[in-house]
Amino acid sequence: MEFLELAKVLDQIENTTKRLEMVDIIANFLKVADEDIMETVFLLQGKVAPDYEGVELGVAEKLVVRALATISGVAEGKIEGLLLKVGDLGKVGEELLKEKKQHSLFSENLTIKKVYNSYSKMARESGSGSQTRKIQILQELLHNSSPVEARFVIRIAIGKMRIGVADMTLVDAIAIAFGSKEDQDEVERAFNIMPNLPEIARMAYNGGIQSLAGVKVVPGVPVRSMLAERLPSLRDILLKMGGVCALEYKYDGLRIQAHKDGNKVTLFSRRLENVTSQFPDIVKEIREKVKAENAILDGEAVPYNIETEEMLPFQEISRRRGRKFDLLETAEKIPVVLFLFDCIYLKGENLMNLPYPQRRLKMVNSVDESAGLKIGKSLIVSEEDDAERFFSLALEAGCEGVVAKSISDKSFYRAGAREFVWIKYKRDYQMEMEDTVDLVVVGAFGGKGRRSGGYGALLMAVYSKTEDKFTTICKLGSGFTDDQLHSLPRMLQRFSLKTKDRRVDSLMTPDYWFEPGLVLEVKGSEITLSPIHTCCRDLIKKDSGLAIRFPRFTGRWREDKKPEETTDEEEILEIYHSQKKKVLAENP
Ligand code: AMP
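^ Those are the sequences you sent over. The predicted structure of the assembly is below.
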């Protein structure tokens, strides 16, 4: 079919704001698209391949300007001036061609296939000389375009369609074109487990809507991620869940859907982009530690300090994105752990229609946990107190809250859906710890990985004047240079003890104990409630102490300070309250 027909449809879509009208226009066109059905849907989306294949057209605007200049004989500078005025390179091209076409004789009509194939070729061009070849392809397309075709040829090329055909509009149009309005759910179901609308349209065109029942989950093709609803309290969540549910840590990182198919591992982001190349370390763990021959696992990748077992702020992971050349090196410097929380497919079987507890069990049984691959923490709760305690533990571990998961018979994996089967509960405040604090070392944990043989993290404490004791406030493992780490055992040697110092109050048992002596300056991101630290225990909340979140050594040894001169509990309490006040002032 001629591309002009599709360009006219695109023009009509552009001229309506009514969604239903849009759906009808598209549906009518799909009915007659025949063997061009896939290319048509791709072009309606302004794409050449489904997102998960990672093929991008993305032609730079300046390339298009150059091509237009050659075709129209108008200088590049002038075209750029027009672009500034009109703001839409598609329209600029259309106008330029209107003038030119009046005296042009040679051109052949564009077909939908020809346009799609040209883009497809363009998208796959890479390496030296690729820019020139892209320009040539574009010039040929423009040379054969009528003005209205040029508008869309240009817009698709630069990735700015501007007509807003959303995925769900296409879902509805496919249902109406090859079935009826009532078939929308069936098309959506297929889309949720195979987010490839051109292929879905082709199947529906050839075999009717019923053929979509044949769409199956397969490793390598991402399933749309299940999402969580939100409620304001753990009590509300328990009520909504019928009095019992599983609570899971809500890890703060990047959602990853990991697909294993024999030796091939593919990773997708929440938006279903292929992010495999950014995480060679996760690929390795999935390949080696997932025992099943094939599987699709859902999880969250979190930057992590493997030696100290601390989660790091989420921002660390974004430093991984977009890096092409030093990925292995970055993987070593900013390691990530993938925390798995669901299993969608295992050993050739789609698990989406099994209740969550069964899926989780299968997941647990099919993964060998390792330093870089872990099963997310989970606990079945029915009492609000237990839920609160688990929530505090999650915060203490560096998570942003919890996700409650229904454990009912109907707790299926609902791809693409945001329903009350998963409910998230985050802390509703964000606090800033501005001051540094001086903390004293009272214990140490043996190191792992690069730090094995030395200390991985130190157990830090503050002083309680009222009770003359040292209470723990955090594990400290970040901020040290390699030299500083090496010097720690020597510096701490003279404080070494066989058992806990009687003035130290700790619920944790580190591998080494020290008499409070060595003082370090520490900066954290905030002070939070903690069930495992003893600083200010029970003062704010029963069975809770205070802890420093994301603590880092500033590099300053405070050898000038005696342990009794470290920051004391009262000051910590003050910082805790002042952070909170600050937030209240900002969000009254
Ligand atoms: P939000 O981004 O605030 O809507 O929260 C939902 C996101 O939390 C999911 O998309 C995941 O990326 C993330 N997440 C972290 N831990 C879990 C978990 N245990 N279960 C489900 N989602 C989780």
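The domain at 227-430 is CATH 3.30.470.30 (D-amino Acid Aminotransferase; Chain A, domain 1). The longest helix spans residues 569-586.

Shout if you want it in another format.
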